[in-house]
Amino acid sequence: MDLLQLIGVNSGGISFTQKKGQNLAIAGETGSGKSTLLKIIGGLAEPSAGVVLFEGQRVLGPTERLVPGQPGIAYLSQHFELWHNYRVEEILSYANDMTPEESAELYAICHIDHLLGRRTDALSGGERQRIALARLLVRPPRLLLLDEPFSNLDMIHKDTLKRVIRNIGEQLGITCILVSHDPLDLMAWADEVLVLRDGGVEQQGPPERIYRQPINEYVAGLFGKYNLIGKTFVRPEDIDKHSLQRVFDAADSIDTLIVGSGSGVWRPPSDLRQALRAVSIVLDAMQTGPAIRTYNIMMGERRRVAAALIAVP
Q1: What range defines the domain where residue 245 resides?
Q2: Domain total for the chain?
Q3: Judgement on whether residues 163 and 233 belong to the same structural domain of the protein
Q4: Is the model more confident about 242 or about 211?
Q5: Rounded Cα–Cα distance for residues 16 and 6 (Å)
Q6: Model confidence, pTM
């Protein structure tokens, strides 16, 4: 049986399943409905349509429970709060169902065992977030929802939190759903990626497929730079001399390569091949005439130029 199942949720008709132990990431532009979907899954918001099933039982919304929230599901908001002027160990002792040994293991996994004697007003943002996460886990949930956990973190605390989240799944056996405004934070962790747009599912699949085979420019653009070659999306790191040859249709069919920004003019075949070796990223292309194709080209790291390839009639 699936751990989680969504059927026709909201106006976008969102439907998907999640198995126990499967890392599910939700990506999408700002306003695409990521955080709202997470709250609906956790029973903290009402869906406008459809149903959410957790372990085969319907998740009740906040109008159906005295205290909103689905038992067995924990939700870490991006706007978490800790009690002020308390020691960390005092906060974590509240409603702690774990044995001392289990608690010590949890604190080590969350990388907060060295912070137990500190007061909450003497903690950094990253430390406070890991403590808020551990507070949710002292009564272990079966599904953990993480809403933008990497926002406002420096690189050191972000890397620490990534290790913590991975260890929560691997060592504690807790299934996770993670939302991030930076989809690249999701790729190495996720087993499945759900891409949202305007409240609906734009694409779903393994991270490698989403990255290498996006269904449109919206999905491609979420995960970094890309080149649209015909109807094929090619990532910059995948461009080699063979794919460049396909981009430019073969040197013998080109009469002139005109590159803007004072870069000069080359004529094929040898000069054109020399020009192609200088190209690091072909950003985009469009047809500007019957025999002219204009390219936006990145030369080196920062220098962007325009180029036109004029084919021999």
Answers
A1: 227-311
A2: 2
A3: no
A4: 211
A5: 5
A6: 0.77
Distances (CA, A) of 248 to 227, 268, 292, 296, 300: 13, 12, 11, 13, 19
121-147 tens-digit pLDDT: 888 888 999 999 999 999 999 999 999
**Pairing mode of beta strands 232-234, 254-259:** unpaired
Average pLDDT over residues 157-175: 94
Last residue of a domain, one of 178, 203, 222: 222
Count CB-CB contacts under 10 A for residue 114.
Answer: 11
Is residue 289 pLDDT above 50, yes or no?
no
pLDDT > 90: percent of the chain:
54
Q: Mark whether 135 and 265 lie in a shared domain.
A: no
- Give the SS3 label for residue 113: helix
Question: Is 286 exposed, middle or buried, given 0-12, 13-18 or 19+ CB atoms closer than 10 A?
Answer: exposed
185 contacts: CB under 8 Å, gap ≥ 6: 150, 158, 162
